[in-house]
Amino acid sequence: MAFWDSSAIVPLCCARSASVQGRRLLARLGRIVAWWGTTVEARSAFARVVRDRELSSAQRAIAITLLDQLRRSWDEILPTEAVRAIAEFLPDDYGVRAGDAWQLAAALVWCSERPRGRPFVCLDQRLAKAASAMGFMVHPN
User: Fold this and answer.
1) How many CB atoms lie within 10 A of CB 137?
2) What is residue 77's predicted lDDT score, i.e. its pLDDT?
3) 135 φ/ψ angles, rounded to the nearest 5 degrees
4) What proportion of the chain, given as a percentage, has pLDDT over 90?
5) Helices 6-13 and 38-51 meet at what angle, rounded to 10?
6) Rounded distance, CA 78 to CA 71, Å?
């Protein structure tokens, strides 16, 4: 079981340079834990790559179907007061943006604020750096 940021979920749903590596990580790490807002972030990413003409509308529809399938199988961290309380301090303490603060706070709730060695799958460099500084084992490494 591992926490997956939306940056790592997107390549599982549509052909990206990290898709093969992501599938291997999923097979190795097992069940996904994700933040409640991950589907919104992923669909935003799908829309952006369609606008950039890197993905067709038909491919986006397939990606959305795959995302829905993944969502039905993952464990989801909901937007609770605990998540918000943790997220509020992360931009100052780790220099992350709001969306990344939500992701990190959700991961911290998942591991009961004991991140040392817990797997965190992320392709965003800034978020990966913050997660590593907290003690998460960031993948891919």
Assistant:
1) 15
2) 98
3) 115, -5
4) 89
5) 60
6) 13
**CATH tag, 2-139:** 3.40.50.1010
Where on the phi/psi map is residue 16: left (φ > 0), alpha (ψ -120 to 50), or beta?
A: beta
Share the mean pLDDT of the chain.
95
The alpha carbon of residue 123 and the mean position of all alpha carbons in its chain are separated, in whole angstroms, by 8
Residue 107 near residue 136 (C-beta atoms within 8 A): yes
DSSP-derived letter for residue 91 is H
d(CA 111, CA 18): 26
Do 44 and 2 contact (CB within 8 A), yes or no? Answer: no
The residue assigned the tokens 């926490």 is: 3
- Within a 13 Å sphere around the CA of 122, how many CA atoms are in the beta-carbon half? 24
Order across the sheet with 32-35: list the strands: 75-77, 32-35, 2-4, 119-121, 137-139
- Return the domain boundaries, the chain: 2-139
Q: How many residues does the chain have?
A: 141
Structure tokens at 79: 């937007």
